[in-house]
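Troubleshooting entry. The earlier prediction with copper (II) ion gave an output that would not parse, so I re-checked the input for stray whitespace and re-submitted. Clean input:
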Amino acid sequence: MKLGCTAKTAFVGLTVMGYLTLLGFSSAPETPRTINIVAKRFTYEPDDITVKKGEPVVLEFTTSDVAHGLKFKDLNLNTRIEKGKKNELAFTPTKTGDFNGQCSVFCGSGHGGMRMTLHVTE
Ligand SMILES: [Cu+2]
């Protein structure tokens, strides 16, 4: 039957897409990539991340001690990292380069040195 055949083809297609996704190939570039980052006095783990220009990304922050923040002045991004919750910063980089981020919520003596580097590649 024609309809059944189409359904089967669609199913096989979806299955192949599933495998490709598992292998790290995504057929849906609009699905944001998630990077988990843990903030603590006075660092981020990781503190050096690389993303691609035009690729939507979600930075998912948690703090393991007090509230922190993260600000990329040159990218006009700023977020608070509150205790006991996941703090998401979603964006799509539109320019390449190396960007310096720093904690934007006063968190103690090392606050001024709490930094992160974001690399945006082509
Ligand atoms: Cu701070």
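This one parsed fine. The chain has a mean pLDDT of 86.
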